[in-house]
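Schema walk-through. Below, the input block comes first and the output block second. Nothing else is stored per chain. Lengths vary across the set, and this one has 369 residues.
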Amino acid sequence: MGILSAKGARSPLLALSVFIVAFIVGFMVWQSVPRVPFPRSHGSTHHVAISTVPETKAAPVSMEEIMRLLFTPLKIEPDQPTFTDLNGTAHTLPPNPRYRKKLGKNVLVLDLETRSLESDKAWKKGIFNWMNLDHLSGGVFQHYTYALIHNYDYKFIKAPKFWDRHSSWIKPSAIANQLHDYEFIVFLDADAAVHNMHLPIEWLMNYWDVEPKHSITMAKDPWEPEHPEINSDRFNRTLTNTGFMIIQNNPTAHEILKAWHECPDDTRYVGCSKWKKPRFHEQSAFGEFIRYDYEDNIKELECKEANGAPDVEVSDCKGTFIRHYWFEKHNVKLDFQENMMQAITVPFQRTFMDNWPRVIYTQDSNKII
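--- output ---
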């Protein structure tokens, strides 16, 4: 992405996990057991859930189960005709969606880094604090949670740095090495986020009409006619952004990844070595060279749907489904927090409404009686 203008308290992970486990277990019990009257001191009746089953030692609940259960009320099916976001905007699938079943472990959500996670160091020291978490760990946690919600596989790969090129050049080879074991890889940069975590990648691939021939699906960068030199290749065509990619395991995908990885060697693509270190590294090389040999196998998405953030005005690039926080990187944590709070507060809202007659009282007059 080119340079375009765009406009506490300690919370240990252990304590957060205990709270979530307790909440989920309580939510499960609330859903499944009968309610009986519970007398209150002033004589009215308040209903609470109790179990009539003899007490037994509960089996441990895994974090995978917790996340899937927490998001179950929000999740939609891969072929659900319409998805309405929290802004009230309806998004409709094209006729005859291709992906009708959940792909599960056939999908890999992938993080690639040469950097270590600061959260790992903090955890080992016993000082983990979400409020102090950097965007790198925040983005990784978001991606990992997304994989748990939909039962996708997840990997965080820490690769060595290159001696002669920018670290982002690890993408083609690392993706190629993993692609043998999956139908699809969903790759995101650490500052990119799936904006609606309850929305499965299968639905998005239906929405974008990803065909079997499409080896790599990626979004275009923002572009404006006033500055055509920014985010364009040598033919003035808008670059695609490698911060979010869907890579499909087909024969051409492996060929593309190999050509991309070897591009800076200046064998097949003379002049590609120019992009070893200057912006935008592997992204510029892909846009300048690779995609022209594989036009039919590259699916380019509009910037506004799978790139950018709400404060980006250029190309209306506001990240409807995938957001990429190039500038305000800390917002990837906020995106994650909002998704989690939406999932947690939905059952609270249901509880409140179910108990409406017992918690809402009408006062006839504003007098002390």
